[in-house]
Amino acid sequence: xxxxxxxxxxxxxxxxxxxxxxxxxxxxxxxxxxxxxxxxxxxxxxxxxxxxxxxxxxxxxxxxxxxxxxxxxxxxxxxxxxxxxxxxxxxxxxxxxxxxxxxxxxxxxxxxxxxxxxxxxxxxxxxxxxxxxxxxxxxxxxxxxxxxxxxxxxxxxxxxxxxxxxxxxxxxxxxxxxxxxxxxxxxxxxxxxxxxxxxxxxxxxxxxxxxxxxxxxxxxxxxxxxxxxxxxxxxxxxxxxxxxxxxxxxxxxxxxxxxxxxxxxxxxxxxx
Amino acid sequence: xxxxxxxxxxxxxxxxxxxxxxxxxxxxxxxxxxxxxxxxxxxxxxxxxxxxxxxxxxxxxxxxxxxxxxxxxxxxxxxxxxxxxxxxxxxxxxxxxxxxxxxxxxxxxxxxxxxxxxxxxxxxxxxxxxxxxxxxxxxxxxxxxxxxxxxxxxxxxxxxxxxxxxxxxxxxxxxxxxxxxxxxxxxxxxxxxxxxxxxxxxxxxxxxxxxxxxxxxxxxxxxxxxxxxxxxxxxxxxxxxxxxxxxxxxxxxxxx
Lengths: 272, 256
Ligand SMILES: Nc1ncnc2c1ncn2[C@@H]1O[C@H](COP(=O)(O)OP(=O)(O)OP(=O)(O)O)[C@@H](O)[C@H]1O
Ligand SMILES: [Mg+2]
Fold this sequence. Notes:
With 272 residues, chain A is an alpha/beta fold. Helix content of chain A is 42%, strand content 23%. Chain A folds into 2 domains: 12-85 and 163-271, P-loop containing nucleotide triphosphate hydrolases (Rossmann fold); 94-160, no CATH class. Chain A contains 10 helices and 11 strands. The longest helix of chain A has 18 residues, at 175-192. The model of chain A is unreliable at 1-7 and 251-272 (pLDDT under 50). Chain B is mainly α and 256 residues long. Classes of the chains: A alpha/beta (272), B mainly alpha (256). Magnesium ion binds next to helix 1 of chain A.
């Protein structure tokens, strides 16, 4: 594992990172610092800029201004070094359905330049790790959604990246499949020390899986904190849903009012 | 170089696996050239509508129809790439440390496989229609090289269009708009010297003309290349390299 490369211990560090599409500023002066080894959650309403931010961090999209370091390398100056250190699972199910799981992995192994001698051992390990060893020779179009997600994780971890970027990895999965993805992510962090950046709309996932969260609102970072810290900051008994609505909704903008609302609801619950 | 070849081969190999696994698309693409030869070719040969010198009209258009089917099957590559972008496949390729030029070149090579299948179909049809074609190994080898190069060139052209228009709907429109004129403004089904002057100028700027010209010399018994093989292949190769360089720049913009 190469977690040493500079950037003062941060796997991801952005400074004034901004991306505009015409007159729309999708990501607006974002400053984030994600320590190595964390599972970091990125929350925000639809269109808040999560995918745009991830695309910049994974070198798919050039920033309009500002910069980001990923694994110690600048995304604009050293994109090739960044690419070698990251794994990415896009928001869409991107495994090739016309290939088998094994063939998908072989392609990744070759594109990441894994030495031939290591290739099969790594692929076997990734398949076993993701619980796909028995389905490796089947066409991916016969897989369930959960299996495809696990295959994509297998592809993304094959070259042992330092940092994994996952854009809504559990969307559309049933609770069982979702929990198995969580378990795999925790294992990846535990076994390989990977840093994981994950976006989600699922507050249970944010709370159960993530060490730290950033909530985006209209391209800006509305707040950063641990799940427990964010809830506590809103008032005792606040749920993650309420935290999200408070920072990402934009509907209730006065925190005082919101705190009152939480208080009232909590009281009501206790009484009812 | 080693890395470039390895990465390109990985991309091309995947396409080959998919092609062999589901050949229905290839078979359906073979129908059109067969119709052109069997119906259009035979009718025009029968009425002696177009003067093609000593060479019979059927033999004359056989290389033209091969070049046409190379063009038509390669031009669909753009759609396939847009489709892959919509599926997130392109994202995954682009976040890998593989060089962009390998990704684009690998695609171009895989278009060549389809071209080779088209060539096999044309030779088969020609055989059944008693159109005699050259059979010396070096001629066949030249045809295969021309078909590979032509497929690579037109598929890369198609990729560039895809990167510019970005959506399948728009590509469909533009694809039609480009392929038919490219086909008719070439020497595929009539010789350059019966064209009006302006069309001849257009045809001489059209890479398809050089592919047809080379194939005509390499496939027809007693046929010859008007421009010479050196010129034909140099034009095709230069055009391909230029398009490749443009495509390498544009390909990453597909996912923006
Ligand atoms: N290529 C693009 N061209 C123009 N606008 C874009 C482009 N990509 C994103 N946007 C806009 O930028 C904003 C942020 O989009 P983004 O996809 O980053 O949001 P998101 O937080 O990932 O949303 P979701 O939860 O729906 O996935 C949106 O308003 C979107 O329409
Ligand atoms: Mg998104």
